[in-house]
Amino acid sequence: MKLTDTEKREILKLIEADKPLPDKYRFMLFDDKREVELVWNGKTSEVTNLVLPFQVIEQVDEPRNSKPIMAVNKRKSGKVIGDHSRTAAVDKYPVQRPLFDTRGRQKSGWTNKLIWGDNKLILSSLKNGPLRAEIEKEGGIKLICIDPPFDVGADFSMDIEIGDDTFTKKPNVLEELAYRDTWGKGADSFIAMIYERLVLMRDLLVENGSIYVHCDWRVNSFMRLVMEEVFGTSVYRNEIRWKRQPPRGAKAISRQYARSSDSMLYYTKSDSYTWNAQFKEYDQKYILSKFNKQDKDGRWYRIDNIGDYSEKSIAEFRKKGRIYDYPSGKVGLIRYLDEAKGEAITDIWLDINEVIVKQIRFSKFARQ
């Protein structure tokens, strides 16, 4: 792009004064196609490539137990009951079986590990170290779920009850340093910290991989911008909102809508990603109101609109006995309850049991 004389003089003046050029000149002087970019103090494209040995704290050898699965629900006498006629002990985790030998020990050394250390160095070691080839030989890393720190304040102290006594655990030097590195300069520190780690995660993910990032209102806006900086806007899939607990105490009387939910940002590495649709059982009221017709074999069904199916498809449905003829001459599509997958899971999660949540997290922390 051709610069005007005024712009040239401004650039020379800034260079002579040893001052940074405004961002607009980067696009004018260089071939940069990015329309939107996240900028923060100290931004750099450099990512660590150190390779260090792992300190493995725990290695899980035992495979998960097999559990019997239930057959589809059926409706009978106005009630929904479980049909046990096809119940069988089916291995729910067949993919994991090849990882273990007959004693339940791991055959290879990279799976089911709890590793102690700075996750940036661990990610760098996984990406650049000898385990990378072994991981990719087994299909690579296809799913990452992270829970980065929220800006909850520098106080890492907590009360610990031992018998009848209560002790206050003060933050140690490592915790104070970690907080300073993450939040010492405010949002700039956090973005710089999470950006480098997300770049390493992106490079480790296979092309059909996915990543979920747990966050709350404190860092939600930062995380969304950083994720799109690293992964791109086209591979954003969902922001899942899940209800943590009903409002109570100060939250219930605060002068704002009570904060009772967290977010899960869902991105993929590319458009060719693995997706397994999830469903939950229909509500019994829904079943009783919708699946209210019964065929000669006793199977309950509902009638859907025929939609935009072609005449050829409708003819195929008719051969299979799936077309319902109304007296008016219109036709509908028969859908059986025992073939229904259930209600598709959406990006709003309201059915997480609060008691279970308390069991899996230490309630003294403001993070999950």
Automatic annotation (TrEMBL):
Transferase in keyword set: yes
Record carries keyword Transferase: yes
Leading EC class: transferase
A Pfam cross-reference name: N6_N4_Mtase
Domain annotation DNA methylase N-4/N-6: ranges: 141-349
Keywords, in A-Z order: Methyltransferase, Transferase
Source taxon at top rank: Bacteria
A Gene Ontology BP annotation from the UniProt entry: methylation
A GO molecular function held by the record: DNA binding
EC number of the protein: 2.1.1.72
Entry protein name: Putative adenine-specific DNA methylase
